[in-house]
Design a protein that fits this description.
Layout: E1 3-8, E2 14-20, E3 29-33, H1 41-52, E4 56-60, H2 73-81, H3 85-100, E5 107-112, H4 114-125, E6 129-135, E7 153-160, H5 166-178, E8 183-191, H6 205-223
Helix pairs in contact: 3-4
Length: about 220
């Protein structure tokens, strides 16, 4: 359904990604950020699904063509740890946001795992964004303080998550509330990466569909 595109970062460098356009011409935009595996078919599928829901969706390729197989967590961790999160967010993600907003459309940001953390960083450092939806990822506070978040956020977390733990989530929620920030936070009795239907060991269809409905409703409310 979608297509591979190249777009410009604010620094003038080229970045690539996967774009799926909605049927209507003046659709709002959603930038979709990958898990630590890379720009997988599953993330492209979510872009297609956003397009069917009425959004132009662009997933920038933060690993520049590298996609790690699902069984190889060591390689995924290595790729994630070698990613410059600030450059990826303030340049590549911002470039994708600017690409989608070029016709005056409002743009939101969403991401999963690694992409969830990038979504929170983007909510602080990408001024063109109107809203964000976070899936099971929180960055370290030095990358993005809850007090500095500039847009309404919705967040989805798993109770059986040993990476983005319930304790971490509670701390994030508390800090957002203390700073008076707009946050809708949902917890699911599921495992990390429960939205990824390609990973049967962790996929939870009921939780994933509930989260999807909430996310699209939130974006319709804030992006139009």
């Amino acid at each position: 359904m979608g297509t591979a595109i190249t777009f410009k970062r604010p620094d003038g460098k080229d970045a690539s990604g996967y774009l799926a356009n909605a049927a209507r011409g003046n659709a709002p935009g959603v930038v979709v950020i990958q898990e630590w595996w890379g720009l997988s078919d599953q993330i492209k599928g979510l872009c297609d699904r956003f397009a069917l829901a009425g959004f132009d969706a662009l997933a920038p390729d933060l690993y520049k063509g590298k996609v790690v197989p699902y069984h190889d967590t060591d390689a995924a961790g290595k790729e994630m740890n070698s990613l410059d999160f600030m450059d990826a967010t303030t340049q590549t993600v911002r470039g994708a946001t600017q690409y989608l907003s070029r016709n005056g459309a409002k743009v939101g940001l969403t991401g999963f795992c690694l992409g969830g953390a990038v979504t929170i960083i983007g909510s602080v450092h990408v001024p063109e964004l109107a809203a964000g939806v976070v899936f099971y990822g929180i960055p370290p506070e030095q990358a993005a303080k809850p007090a500095d978040v500039k847009i309404p956020l919705q967040a989805h977390f798993a109770n059986k998550d040993d990476w983005c733990t319930p304790e971490l989530v509670n701390g994030f929620e508390k800090a957002m509330k203390a700073a008076g920030k707009s946050l809708e936070l949902f917890r699911y009795d599921a495992e990390h990466a429960f939205v990824n239907e390609q990973r049967q060991a962790v996929h939870d269809r009921e939780a994933a569909e509930l989260a999807w409905g909430r996310a699209t409703e939130f974006f319709r409310k804030h992006l139009g």
